Amino acid sequence: MKERIITGIVAGVLFLSIVIYGKWPFSLLIFALGTIGYFELIKMKKQDVFSPPTVIGLLLTWLAIIPNDWSMNMFQYGIDKSDLLIILLLLLLSYTVLTKNTFTFEDASFVTLSALYVGYGFHYMHEIRLMGLADLFFPLFVIWATDSGAYFIGKAFGKTKLWPEISPNKTIEGSLGGVVCAIVVAVILSFVLTLNYSVIYLIFVAILVSVFGQIGDLVQSAYKRYYGVKDSGKILPGHGGILDRCDSWIFTFPIVYLLFVL
Question: What is the C-alpha separation between 231 and 165, in angstroms, rounded?
């Protein structure tokens, strides 16, 4: 527990400092988190990290992460980001033929889904930060409130299992408690942060963030259970890997971005 608390404080202070400062350190952080998250998924499947498919998947991850404003400057000659994504996907599929199907279509699908899932999750985190610091803080604090509320309320009142086949410790009472805490924090943030949205709309966003954040957590639990691992990685002592901490983020940031630009 002591190790977990120390890691949480140190990592939290460093993370928030970079988020607040923004600019190139934040962009570098996003690419680093995306890269580590991608390799955590690759290692779960016990796939060779130095194999051509893994390298192609890494390029897919980086390409997905690239912010929209970078894309406009990088792709000015009749080719855009989606064209390169298709080329990399075709290379990945071609590798199934070159290996005489020892690297299968299912393997290629895993690499593609891993790259796009992680890459676009962190891409939208970057896009939301460009919208403003308050726009990023809102979903982050709502997610943290959901996690804390679900844990403590689940511990105190949880009796009915939410999805025991995937995550045996989660309860319906804890899940609902997380949503309630998310709503409370959303109302508080509507007065604390400078956001160009009504309180009602922020509550609506908070409910979706809370629900889909918990789904993102369950998705990561399903991954780990399927591949027989306890944590996605060991980079954060006492906490596990990057995906153990960011699973809710990368699942909800695309949704938050769409809701904030409507």
Answer: 17
Asked whether the beta carbons of 138 and 194 are under 8 A apart, the reply is no
Residue 122 CA to chain centroid, in angstroms?
A: 6
Query: pLDDT value at position 185?
Result: 97
In a domain, 71, yes or no: yes
Look up residue 229 and give its two tokens: 């691992």
CB atoms within 10 A of CB 34: 27
Q: For tokens 């593609």, what's the residue? A: 112
**Packing angle, helices 23-44 and 52-65, rounded to 10:** 150
Q: What is the pLDDT of residue 8?
A: 76
pLDDT of residue 10: 85
Whether 94 and 168 share a structural domain: no
Q: In degrees, to the nearest 5, what angle opens at C-alpha 102 toward C-alphas 101 and 108?
A: 75
The three-state secondary structure class of 169 is strand
The predicted pLDDT at position 27 comes to 96
Tens of pLDDT, residues 151-179: 999 999 988 998 888 888 899 999 999 99
pLDDT at site 1: 62
201 and 244 in one domain?
Answer: yes
Query: Residues in the chain with pLDDT < 50?
Result: none
Read off the pTM: 0.92
* CB contact at 8 A, 38 and 119: yes
Nearest-angstrom CA–CA distance, 250 and 83: 23
Q: Are residues 59 and 107 in the same domain?
A: yes
Q: Are 71 and 17 in contact (CB under 8 A)?
A: no
User: Do 136 and 261 reside in the same domain of the chain?
Assistant: yes
